[in-house]
Amino acid sequence: MLHTAHKSSKLSGLMSQVVTRFAPSPTGYLHIGGARTALFSWAYAQNKGGKMLLRIEDTDRERSTEAAVTALVDGLKWLGLTWDGEPISQFGRAARHAEVAHELVKMGHAYYCYCSPAELDQMREEARAAGKPPRYNGYWRDRDQSEAPDGVAPVIRIKAPLSGDIVVDDHVQGKVVFKAENLDDFIILRSDGTPTYMHAVVVDDHDMGVTHIIRGDDHLTNAARQIVIYNAMGWTVPEMAHIPLIHGPDGAKLSKRHGALGVEAYRQMGYLPEALRNYLARLGWSHGDDEIFSTEQMVEWFSLEGLNKGAARFDFVKLENINGHYIREAAPAYLYDVMLATSAEVGRQADVDGLSANKETVLTALPELQPRAKTVLELIDLAQFIYASRPLAIDAAAAALLTPETRAVLRDMAEVLRGLNEWSVPAIDAAMRALAEAKGLKLGKLAQPLRAALTGRTVSPGIFEVMVLIGRDESMARLEDQTSAV
Predict the structure, then answer these.
(1) What whole-number percentage of the chain has pLDDT above 70?
(2) What is the four-CA torsion angle of 422, 428, 431, 436, rounded to 10 degrees?
(3) Contact (CB, 8 A) for 302 and 43
(4) How many CB atoms within 10 Å of residue 153?
(5) pLDDT at residue 35 is higher than 90
(6) How far apart are CA 73 and CA 388, in angstroms?
(7) Which residue range or ranges hold the Aminoacyl-tRNA synthetase class I anticodon-binding domain (predicted)?
């Protein structure tokens, strides 16, 4: 007997609207693997003109809090992933799950099981002793209910097929065959009336009209059990795409040391949502050799056939490079808002104040700063010269340039600069070139210590542009701080 995954779902899918879903458990944040699953589900629905639904699988009441749900929703919104309708609570549908379980009993496809924990332990031990997998042996499968012990609340178990194959015809994994004889009659409703995950997922996906399920390949074995429930109810099985999990650079399962963090951590590290979308799309999906593409292009190109069967490896260097691209291409006004929000989120109040008080100057400087930064945090650091308090904090590399010899040259520069009638880039440039020629030095020998004195760093926009941005008075005051230093 063949239990196929899809029956007529592929035909019906051609006639009906595509409906995907993202169904996270609220663990306090949207982790990076979940974000990728949401992205793929969203992109496929967008590509097909369909809908993506959001279901919060909050049946674990100890871990499911309002704060955790809010963190998930905020993470999706920051990534720019939208869903249709209101988020659905799986816990809120417990009565419906129980209704279907009891309906399966009436149909003869499930049954009440009264085994005690001790009896189940004994079954497992006997199976192990016989060299078989430790599992339930179907003791109550065909027993009459008149044999039920008094005062025992039963569980409900599905009647799994005893022979044949269960086939998952997967868009990524291909045709995956499970032997029915290796399944036991698993529980779909606990003795307290609450559903198991395996059962709740099937009922919810059916009732929500889900046509396509995209999820991690750690759910592949679950698919076989879920098909048993679909077939028992006579429901069409959604099409499935089980994507490989993300691995770390070393090939091991992604962990926190690799980057398995919540998306809010990436926001706080200075990554742009459009860059993270682009990078996550390439972790398990491809369109030729394209590495950089807009979200609109991704939606246009996205297909389940483009999903990769091999595991993708998370690489912070590639993510930074992609983020740098998006920072270079972004409008200064947009970046300014992100810099302000990021500073506030990570608790850098001095940057919030400085950015707020110097908005126009920062906006003017950003086209010079953007090519030098790969993250928003780097961009904030590069902009600090605009509003830094005197005396400037000089970093180690810049301090190495401020020797007694270069401070003497700075004094000469200060003398020349005081005599300028016009404070502009061409005027400052001409004056410094004349001084360099008079001293027999290359212009860089003047510019490097000047940059260190005026910004506290060795990297900045053109130093003459910096001087115009912060103004004559501030430039001369910072120069005085360093030329008077011992």
Answers:
(1) 95
(2) 170
(3) yes
(4) 10
(5) yes
(6) 36
(7) 357-481
Instruction: Give the span between the Cα atoms of 296 and 47, in whole angstroms.
Output: 10
Q: What is the CATH number assigned to the segment(s) 93-243? A: 3.40.50.620
Q: What share of the chain is helix, strand, coil (3-state, %, to 5)?
A: 55, 10, 35
Q: Half-sphere exposure of residue 393, counting CA atoms within 13 Å on the CB side? A: 6
Asked whether residue 48 is marked as a ligand-binding residue, the answer is no
CB 27 within 8 A of CB 69: no
Break the chain into its structural domains and give their ranges. 93-243, 388-486
CA distance 438 to 447: 15
pTM over 0.90? The answer is: no
For domain 388-486, is the CATH number 2.130.10.10? no
Tokens of residue 379, six digits: 């961009």
Q: Which two tokens mark 62?
A: 């100890």
What is the number of H-type helices and E-type strands within the chain?
21, 11
The Cα–Cα gap between 172 and 187 comes to 28
C-alpha span between 447 and 452 (Å, rounded): 9
Out of 10, 175, 179, 256, the active site residue is 256
- The candidate with the shortest Cα–Cα distance to 320, out of 349, 350, 279, is 279
CA distance 285 to 252: 20
CB atoms closer than 10 angstroms to residue 178:
20
User: Which helix (DSSP H) or strand (DSSP E) does residue 124 occupy?
Assistant: helix 117-129
Mutual orientation of helices 316-329 and 273-282 as an angle, nearest 10°?
140
185 φ/ψ angles, rounded to the nearest 5 degrees = -80, 85
Tokens of 282: 């390439």
Question: Within 10 A of 435 (CB to CB), how many other CB atoms are there?
Answer: 18
225-229, 309-313, 445-449: the lowest-pLDDT one: 309-313
